[in-house]
């Protein structure tokens, strides 16, 4: 059936006017027509599309709520790595950040800073193709997130079509307003459902709803704050451009000429934050000049050019009911205060770490003391001080023990040389073994779905596992013989174990529970050595040259690989596990750049700097973040900054992007 020309034009005009008024209402907060008139326009468009379904397009305003529930969220590999920020908690922290930035930039460079309110919501990554909304995904682990496109489409402030036909990746924060949060909890209370702890939890729970209609009812909102691979000159221009495209950008950003102005902005919003409908937990501070951002680059987990300047945490008082030593998976002993449960920053807290013996003595904290508790960075419960005026004389000093039964053996403990921490002398107590296995199967290591602490405990009790490699030898009959193990759950667990046999090098390194080696260090080691075989042969001197790895970490790594029991463990584990390589490094590329050190600066046109770095590593080359006499080549893109100038001073050979590509192809 031929569609009348005037109907085509009417649909086109309806979509344009609806999007215009939607933008005015949800982004600009400046409506020009009543809600009823807006609803009438939507209804007319819906009826026309119902009559001519072949005209329905993904960017139509009627498609914000798809109506179809989904069974599960699909995994999405991000095109651009998603970083998290390091935190600052005081003006002194920010002054230190400013000094680090200036030192790394070198010379007499004084960068400016942009300040943006840090919205306490859920980070989402948005993809647009030629101006049309294509996909939205959660941050996940920074590499892989979950596809939440259907749910994000319900958010009226997210444009389905940009005001320019451009392809881009943007990042933003999805949030739930305080008023809507109260309304949702009132409805949940009436329905006898569990209440959300705070608006952030409610927003995160809403985004993970499998029914978009429920998401639409909760009226989420979103601010966009970043544009991936920006070619603009400054961060301020980037925010203005995002707004020009039709995104909702938080209007309270500010350009500061120096760190003192940043601190003034932070203090202002510390007092004003509660007046906004959205939760604000700090200020994100970024070097304004993009060329300086490119020069500063990233650590293993965070940008060097930006930091989250957190507001001072909410503080409450509570009582210490006991102090208990907790044995970690590496044998380190951590004193934990058991508290009278108290609500702080939106969640109930009953435990707080006291870090070490020195911290207990510094605070002079005793059992039955009344203490001031806060969440450092709104995450980790932390005892700030003791209210000694409230002591009654019944408080008990904590006496550091000489023996700890959970350490196994004779319970002996020892102080770690040069540190405030104590550890078990016995490295293989039953409790440590359990915690290592929990960690091994956990989401940051092998991520074995269904193999949680309770299952591991059952397997240990039945003596079906004792070491990491035993997990990969489990058989269906072994598991079915255990109480409360049904056939379906056993099949699912074995499938998860089979899937986990293929892992990445960073996850493999994390899984080994090497003392002082966390996620960031594992990434640094993976990037530097590219295989577990090369890593286990590394010497302390080589490790200490890696930026971000100090003497203590280097010594821990070498000691772990020199231990004969660990060597046996590694050998057995590698019989069951395949460490996946990237596509490029799996090819026989040779090592023609071995021993050569490269520094990359500026913006590249045909590839990202991370892609260029990986290509260099695949050929055996090393990457450094700073220029020195040991640098062999500097690869300079657009706006190269001070590294380029220093390279010229030192006589380092400078390559442009085409010359680098030529070397790679040779």
Automatic annotation (TrEMBL):
One function term, GO molecular function aspect: DNA ligase (NAD+) activity
Residues at the catalytic site: 118 (n6-amp-lysine intermediate)
Broad EC category: ligase
Any one Gene Ontology BP term: DNA replication
PROSITE patterns, per database record: BRCT, DNA_LIGASE_N2
Pfam families: BRCT, DNA_ligase_aden, HHH_2, HHH_5, Nlig-Ia, OB_DNA_ligase
Obligatory cofactor(s): Mg(2+); Mn(2+)
Gene Ontology CC, one term: cytosol
Alphabetic keyword roster: DNA damage, DNA repair, DNA replication, Ligase, Magnesium, Manganese, Metal-binding, NAD, Zinc
E.C. numbers: 6.5.1.2
Every BRCT domain range: 588-666
Catalytic activity: NAD(+) + (deoxyribonucleotide)n-3'-hydroxyl + 5'-phospho-(deoxyribonucleotide)m = (deoxyribonucleotide)n+m + AMP + beta-nicotinamide D-nucleotide
Binding site for NAD(+): 35-39, 84-85, 116, 139, 173, 286, 310
Amino acids binding Zn(2+): 407, 424
Protein role: DNA ligase that catalyzes the formation of phosphodiester linkages between 5'-phosphoryl and 3'-hydroxyl groups in double-stranded DNA using NAD as a coenzyme and as the energy source for the reaction. It is essential for DNA replication and repair of damaged DNA.
NCBIfam families membership: dnlj, PRK07956.1
Annotated family: Belongs to the NAD-dependent DNA ligase family. LigA subfamily.
The protein, known as: DNA ligase
Organism from which the protein derives: Candidatus Zambryskibacteria bacterium RIFOXYC1_FULL_39_10
Lineage of origin: Bacteria, Candidatus Zambryskiibacteriota
Protein encoded by which gene: ligA
């Amino acid at each position: 059936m031929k569609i009348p020309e005037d109907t085509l034009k009417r649909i086109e005009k309806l979509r344009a006017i609806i999007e215009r008024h939607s933008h005015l209402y949800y982004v600009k907060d400046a409506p020009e027509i009543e809600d009823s008139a807006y609803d009438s326009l939507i209804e007319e468009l819906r009826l026309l599309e119902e009559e001519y379904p072949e005209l329905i397009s993904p960017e139509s305003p009627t498609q914000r709520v798809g109506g179809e529930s989904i069974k599960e969220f699909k995994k999405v590999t991000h095109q651009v790595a998603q970083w998290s920020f390091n935190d600052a908690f005081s003006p002194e922290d920010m002054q230190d950040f400013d000094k680090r930035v200036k030192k790394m930039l070198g010379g007499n460079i004084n960068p400016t800073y942009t300040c943006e309110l840090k919205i306490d919501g859920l980070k989402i990554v948005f993809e647009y193709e030629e101006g049309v909304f294509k996909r939205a995904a959660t941050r996940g682990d920074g590499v892989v997130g979950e596809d939440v496109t259907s749910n994000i489409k319900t958010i009226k402030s997210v444009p389905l079509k940009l005001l320019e036909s451009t392809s881009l990746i943007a990042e933003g924060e999805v949030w739930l307003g305080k008023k809507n949060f109260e309304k949702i909890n009132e409805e949940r209370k009436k329905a006898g459902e569990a209440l959300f702890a705070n608006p952030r939890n409610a927003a995160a729970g809403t985004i993970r709803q499998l029914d978009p209609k429920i998401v639409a009812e909760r009226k989420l909102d979103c601010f966009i704050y970043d544009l991936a691979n920006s070619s603009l000159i400054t961060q301020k221009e980037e925010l203005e451009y995002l707004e020009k495209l039709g995104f909702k950008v938080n209007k309270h950003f500010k350009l500061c000429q120096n760190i003192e102005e940043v601190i003034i902005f932070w203090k202002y919003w510390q007092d004003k934050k509660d007046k906004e409908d959205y939760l604000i937990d700090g200020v994100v501070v970024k070097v304004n000049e993009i060329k300086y951002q490119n020069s500063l680059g990233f650590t293993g987990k965070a940008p060097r050019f930006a930091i989250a300047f957190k507001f001072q945490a909410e503080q409450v008082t509570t009582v210490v009911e006991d102090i208990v030593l907790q044995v970690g998976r590496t044998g380190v002993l951590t004193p934990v205060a058991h508290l009278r449960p108290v609500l702080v920053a939106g969640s109930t807290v009953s435990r707080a770490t006291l870090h070490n013996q020195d911290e207990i003595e510094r605070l002079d904290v005793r059992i039955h003391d009344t203490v001031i508790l806060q969440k450092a960075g709104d995450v980790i419960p932390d005892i700030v001080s003791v209210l000694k005026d409230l002591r009654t004389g019944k408080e008990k000093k904590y006496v550091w023990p000489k023996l700890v039964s959970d350490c196994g053996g004779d319970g002996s403990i020892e102080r770690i040389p040069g540190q405030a921490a104590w550890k078990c002398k016995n490295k293989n107590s039953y409790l440590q073994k359990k915690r290592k296995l929990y960690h091994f199967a956990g989401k940051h290591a092998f991520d074995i779905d269904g193999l949680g602490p309770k299952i591991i405990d059952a397997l240990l009790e039945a003596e079906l596992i004792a070491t990491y490699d035993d997990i990969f030898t489990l058989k269906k009959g072994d598991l079915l013989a255990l109480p409360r193990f049904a056939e379906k759950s056993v099949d699912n667990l074995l499938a998860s174990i089979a899937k986990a046999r293929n892992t990445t090098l960073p996850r493999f390194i994390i899984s080994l529970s090497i003392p002082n080696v966390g996620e960031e260090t594992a990434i640094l080691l993976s990037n530097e050595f590219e295989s577990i075989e090369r890593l286990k042969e590394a010497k302390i001197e080589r490790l200490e040259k890696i930026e971000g790895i100090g003497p203590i970490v280097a010594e821990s790594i070498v000691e772990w690989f020199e231990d004969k029991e660990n060597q046996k463990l590694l050998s057995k584990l590698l019989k069951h596990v395949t460490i996946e390589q990237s596509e490029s490094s799996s090819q026989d590329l040779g090592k023609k750049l071995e021993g050569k050190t490269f520094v990359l600066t500026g913006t590249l046109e045909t590839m990202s700097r991370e892609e260029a770095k990986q290509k260099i590593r695949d050929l055996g080359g090393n990457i450094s973040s700073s220029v020195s006499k040991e640098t062999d080549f500097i690869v300079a893109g657009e706006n190269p900054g001070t590294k380029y100038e220093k390279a010229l001073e030192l006589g380092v050979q400078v390559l442009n992007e085409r010359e680098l590509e030529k070397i790679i192809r040779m």
